[in-house]
Amino acid sequence: MCGIVGYIGPKEACPILINGLKRLEYRGYDSAGIALIHNNNIQVYKCKGRVQDLEHHMELEDTSATIGMGHTRWATHGEPNDANAHPHTSMNGLFSIVHNGIIENYIPLKKKMQDKGYQFISETDTEVLAHLLDYYYKGNPLEAITKVLHRVEGSYALGIMFADQPDKIFAARKDSPLI
Ligand code: GLU
Questions:
Q1: How many CB atoms sit inside 10 A of residue 167's CB?
Q2: Could you give the CA distance from residue 93 to residue 80 in angstroms, rounded to a whole number?
Q3: Which stretches of 96-140 are DSSP H helices?
């Protein structure tokens, strides 16, 4: 069972996200990751293992951003490893997504996106959402998210960040809990 936590506010996001992920550890997970927006860039840190491993992984990085989201993964599609850990990003790094649940129709969607030239670097069902967001985004996040979710079958709780929307985290859910 994965966990998702997000923060936007006046404080440094990273310690709050790490603390949130630690509080979700009891749910069980195989990898963990964090996405932050700093100077209109999305920074992603993720690795297989414990939240503590993620902390070590980020130790020397500039994590002063005040917005971010974190994820602990319970693999359903693709083995537990660094590449399959969430967040997943689009090829240009402008979109980042964390997901709890299963995208049932990801195989045909992945094939269609590969035919359009999108390259996948993970084995997850989730990554297709990042590429679909890139495909549909024309400046209006809600419109793009709505279009993506109309294509998708399955269950999801999602956290989504856009590099050019540095003060927002978008959330969506269907048949998975998210507060
Ligand atoms: N299906 C996704 C994956 O395998 C999300 C798993 C989860 O809910 O943690 O990466």
A1: 8
A2: 22
A3: 106-115, 127-136
d(CA 153, CA 30): 25
**Ligand 1 neighbour 102 (Cβ under 6 A):** yes
* Number of helices followed by number of strands (H, E) in the chain: 5, 8
| pLDDT tens column, 81-122 | 999 999 999 999 999 999 999 999 999 999 999 999 999 999
Question: Tokens at residue 166, please?
Answer: 């540095």
Contact call for residues 99 and 175 (beta carbons, < 8 A):
no
Which DSSP helix (H) or strand (E) runs through 22?
Answer: helix 13-23
| Ligand 1 centroid from CA 93, angstroms | 20
Global pTM?
0.96
* Residue to mutate (ligand 1; options 21, 31, 73; most atoms within 8 A of CB): 73
